[in-house]
């Protein structure tokens, strides 16, 4: 019942729009400041490797993530210094405009969990909670945004291409 309300109700769409705008503004400003103010993730990542998340027994909890940071992220820091600010900015734009909302929120959640696994709590739990609400709502979260036109266009275009490929086969 709640899922139907979240996914189909117009009142829910209005509430989701407010949540979407809040998250979008937060993502956009974080990314924009990194783009315009210079950004280097090497210190953050090195600290996450040096001081990993530990459980009550004192052992590392996410050793696989620390290995990823140490053996992939840090050696390719230039890539991460590009994709983090651009990713945050584009996620924010997608959410604020209501364009490809579920895709933007999915990638926002990936980034939230990445920060969380690296040991940064901050506002991530709240963002993850709100993000899952947006993701669960699907199309309804972008109903009062560009998704109102973009999603039907994509569905129509992919259906047309699928029919052409089926006829050609």
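Q: What amino acid sequence fits the structure above?
A:
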């Amino acid at each position: 019942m709640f899922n139907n309300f979240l996914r189909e109700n117009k009142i829910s769409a209005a509430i989701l729009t407010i949540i979407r705008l809040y998250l979008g503004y937060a993502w956009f400003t974080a990314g924009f400041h990194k783009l315009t103010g210079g950004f280097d993730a090497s210190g953050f990542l090195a600290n996450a490797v040096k001081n990993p998340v530990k459980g009550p027994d004192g052992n590392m909890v996410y050793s696989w993530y620390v290995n990823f940071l140490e053996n992939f992220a840090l050696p390719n820091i230039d890539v991460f210094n590009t994709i983090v600010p651009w990713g945050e900015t584009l996620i924010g734009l997608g959410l604020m405009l209501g364009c490809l909302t579920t895709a933007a929120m999915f990638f926002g959640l990936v980034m939230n969990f990445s920060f969380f696994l690296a040991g940064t709590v901050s506002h991530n739990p709240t963002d993850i909670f709100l993000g899952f609400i947006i993701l669960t709502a699907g199309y309804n979260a972008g109903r009062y945004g560009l998704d109102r036109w973009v999603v039907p266009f994509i569905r129509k275009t992919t259906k047309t291409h699928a029919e052409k490929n089926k006829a050609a086969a």
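Q: And what stands out in the fold?
A: DSSP finds eight helices and no strands in the chain.
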